[in-house]
Structure formats: C-alpha cells, structure tokens
Amino acid sequence: MNHIVHVLEIDAHPRQVFLALTLPDKLAQWWTTQVEIDTTRAVLHFYFHEDFNPQLRIEEQQQDRQVSWHCVGGHKNWYESTLTFGLAGNDQSTLLTFVQTFVAELSEGVYGRYNFNWGYYLDSLRLFCETGRGKPFQAA
pLDDT of 47-61, one tens digit each? Predict the structure, then answer.
C-alpha cells in the first residue's frame, strides 16, 4: 500500500469546495488554523505541531475540477508525496475524490493513522463547505 483514497459527497457547489482547497484563509477553517503561502514558489505551509508541518507546492488547480499538491518539505513521511482532490458535481453537490500517494513505503500503522486523520479533516472540509464551520487543528 502506498496511497490513501477517500470519496465523499459534499452538499455544496464545486466552486465553494474549490475555494476551500485553494485559499489560505479557507484552508485555515477546516485543516489547520495556521496556513501561509509563499506566492513566489507557490508553496503552502501548514503548521500543526512538532515535526508535522507539511510544505506543499501547488502543482495544479483546475477551477472547480481539481487541486493537486506535491510535498516539498516539512514532514519526512510525506516528502515527495502527491495529494490530489478531484471534484465533480452540479449546483447542489460535489463528489470529492481525495488521493494521497506516497513515495516511501510506510507501515500499516502509519497508513492507518494518516487515513484516520484524513477522514477527520475531510469531514471537517465537508462541514465547512456545508455549514461555514469546520473542525481545524488549533495551531499555536
């Protein structure tokens, strides 16, 4: 196993979900409250705690269709991994397909922990898009 996959239905227009995945102030509403962007390098810096502070380069953004990131630093297990959010939908809802592909082979326990955490944060994304309130990590 070298990837994690989640598929979920979000009762919101794909544009709303796309914006939640691309704007730092909206990312801070569902993933971690401390997000910065280096616009010269197109790198998002996400701050959690200790050694888990991924730096993700924006690889692709197709409006209302897809967002892809590539990990360029900040967490060794994620280094060189790719994260893709595929969006499909209509005016009423979005089908989000999330895939994180790792370069390194990790233990089942580590994949399990990451999988569980993504389930939590993708639900936070869903809640944010549907209600305006997510459950982000409260960074210091």
Answer: 998 889 999 999 999
Can you give the pTM of this predicted structure? 0.95
Reading the block at residue 50, the tokens are 């200790």
Cβ-proximal residues to 42 (8 Å cutoff; 6+ apart), any chain: 57, 58
Amino acid, single-letter form, for residue 3: H
Measure the CA–CA gap between 132 and 38, rounded to whole angstroms.
26
Please give the Cα distance from 124 to 32 (Å, whole number): 10
Distance CA 24, CA 43 (A): 11
State the CB neighbour count (10 A cutoff) for residue 84. 17
* 100 DSSP β-pair partners: 4, 83
Q: Indicate the length of the chain as a whole number.
A: 140
pLDDT in tens, 74-120: 989 999 999 999 999 998 999 999 999 999 899 999 999 999 999 99
How many other C-beta atoms can be found within 10 angstroms of the C-beta atom of residue 53?
Answer: 16
- Cβ neighbours for 105, distance < 8 A, ≥ 6 positions apart: 2
Q: Quick one: CA torsion of 16, 21, 23, 28, rounded to 10 degrees?
A: 110
